[in-house]
Amino acid sequence: MDFREIIAEGELGVWLEAAQAIADNHEVRVLKQPETCIVMLQATDSVGFTPFYLGEVLITEAVVEINGTAGYGFVLEDDPQRALCMAVLEAALAAGVSETETVRRLVAEEAGRIAERQRMENGLVAATRVEFAIMEG
User: How much of the chain is in helix, strand and coil states, percent to nearest 5?
Assistant: First the structure.
């Protein structure tokens, strides 16, 4: 799972605490306040492998800077806190701040929780699967 996916799917409270700890110890300059915008969602045709646009998607994006290193955060829908947290965490990791190992640990822990939640959801879905071959006769 990608860093951005983990931030987007993980528990917001974890990211808020981590971002606040970084902001308490480092100067975080907000270069772009969280702002919603619409982007085009691109996909690839599975037959001709040509790109096409599925439609518009609402995202929230933010940009911050820590120690001269920029971080960009973007998430689906209107979620300014999560976008800002993603930007702060990305900038902190890229800048190599003292909290880097803590952030990496938190990301790994959240990845584990997300994977477990997905396993549980997959199990629930699998339990509803119908075997049509059995129903035939």
Answer: 50, 30, 20
Identify the residue whose tokens are 């199990």: 123
* CATH number, domain 3-124, options 3.30.1490, 3.40.50, 3.30.160, 2.60.40: 3.30.160
CB-based contact 12:81 (threshold 8 Å) = yes
DSSP 3-state of 95? helix
Q: Which tens digit of pLDDT belongs to each residue from 92-118?
A: 999 999 999 999 999 999 999 999 999
Buried b (16+ CB within 10 A) or exposed e, 18-38: bbebbeeebebeeeeebeeee
CB neighbours (10 Å) of residue 118? 12
pLDDT tier, 129 (very low <50, low <70, confident <90, very high otherwise):
confident
Q: Where are the alpha helices (DSSP H) in 10-54?
A: 12-25
Q: Does the predicted TM-score (pTM) go above 0.70?
A: yes
Query: How many C-alpha atoms does 123 have within 13 Å on its Cβ side?
Result: 6
What's the rounded Cα separation, in Å, for the pair 114 and 17?
A: 18
**Domain range list for the chain:** 3-124
